[in-house]
Input
Amino acid sequence: MQFKGSLSKCLLIALALTLIPISTYPTTAAGPQTPSCGYYKVTTDEIIVGVKFSKGKYQINSFGISCSKVMGSKGLFAKFLKLKDKEPLPKPWQYLAGAVGAPKFSSGPGVGFRVQLITPTPTPTPTPTPTPTPTPTPTPTPTPTPTSTPTPTPSRSSSPTQETNLPKVGDKCDQRGSTRTLSTFVLRCVPVINNLFEWVDYTPNQSNLADKNPSSNFTHCRIPDARLQKVQSQSIAYPVVPSNPNFTSTSTITIAIVPIDFPDLQGTYDPKIFMNQIQEETDQWNNWFTRGKSKINWVIYPDWIRANKESIEFNWIHPQSNTSQVLDNSISVGQDLIALTESKIDLKNIQDLLFIYPKNVSKIQDSINYSRVMNTKNGGQFLGMFATSVWSYRDQESLAMWLIHENMHVFGFAGHSPAWPPIFSIAHNQAGLSRVMNVWDRMVLDWLNPGDIYCTDVESLHGESIMLVPEEREQSGPQGIMIKLSSHELLVVESHKRDEWSQSYPADFYGITLMYVDTTRDTDRSGENFGDDGKGTRFARTATYVDLHSLNHAPASNGSISDGVNYMLYQGESFDFKGVRVEFIKTGFNDIVRISKSG
Output
């Protein structure tokens, strides 16, 4: 879906500002503000692009890239350490010493990692072979957390060190979002029940949570399409039916990225850097969120192809923008782009074409975006057609997310449900604060493995506690709970945090959402330009988030996107819905939720 103009972006920024009371956030909070990948030991003093990295233990925090690509002996940081002192980083990587927050390595907007020295290793003085005396490490003292019933706890050897001048887990705090690093442990100040703030244990723990949770048969929760009336043809439940049998959610498709410039708008930079970033982000997203079931073969043309007409001739105003002053010329624009491309590339095996214009484009206001049979040298060929524009560079944080979102529709998936709040999933808003896809949508697209959810039905509930992986993190274990309410209804419970796939969330953003799915209802998007609030009231939605305004997390915002926090549970809170009680027992690096029959 294309959210037009700059309004949506402004509203998303407003959400971030609403969720972060600026006056309460300290500038002295210790450590990086994104969850840590873990620690890396540098055994000798090293220099990377002229910057000294003293030997010692470093905490690494990644964003927009998986920890597995950064950490380990074959990870990016290890590779950078092996470079000669003044040898440049491999393109497109660069070291940004003046980055906001802390210096970082970055390959582009929203992608990179920060490296912070936690424990320097003592260096011997220049006397004959002295041996440095290690500094004794205090023994951590566990902080017991009483629970009424046994619950799983993260695997760890100890709890944060308790010192008189440092906070303890459970202590009240008032600097919302602040983080304290105690030895190797991390505490964070977050909102909890009754509008209070507490220190919680946020120590990174990348263990597989599958062993800490009961097993289940996830296909039991794969409820079928039961629509009483269809208002659109695309799939709202498993299995999805694609527009083209060769273009499915679990197939390998071939995408060509083609850079096009114009006599009046010439490309002045190497397009490969930008195109490689799109490829890398798309592949990383597919590998995690589709569990490797959706794959892409890439064809990247390395140089600008000069059009024989000025850029204004390729302009197209999106019909849904309500500002169109021209007839829909998207097909003729697409045919012109195909003619340019076929002078360089054989399209025989191509399924998607993504055209990249220079970023300073000004006369091409909107992006063509459709899939249909196009005329090529090989005859009629079903192609996905996408091109950049003023809109895409202004309103889309990631062209990879835009491409992924639109291809979901080609797979036959309706998406856009839930639609409110539009901050949790690219299936509704690919330009939102998060780049994840919820587990219900992944169920529909066949992008789940058995251990990815805990599935049960309302009759079988017995007060079980489940430790969840947040949707936004690459960690093994259940990312959601599905409770079957009837043959056509589900309650879906998910954990959310700021993490590698949600770097636009505030530092202390977290919560448990409840999603209600009813497959007798279709997803009706006909009102999106006519006052639809996205909540499934005036225009139906197959899935909707359960309204939790009664918990008073924020003032009612009369429909503003900043209302999103009123759809989440905080630690200590509970909610009853259709015979199910969901209790948020404990938050931290992972969240523990108890589910039982209500009443």
About this structure: Residues 24 and 175 are 5 Å apart (CA to CA). Residues 271-289 form the longest helix (19 residues). Residues 252-408 form one domain. The chain has three domains: 31-120, 209-231+417-597, 252-408.
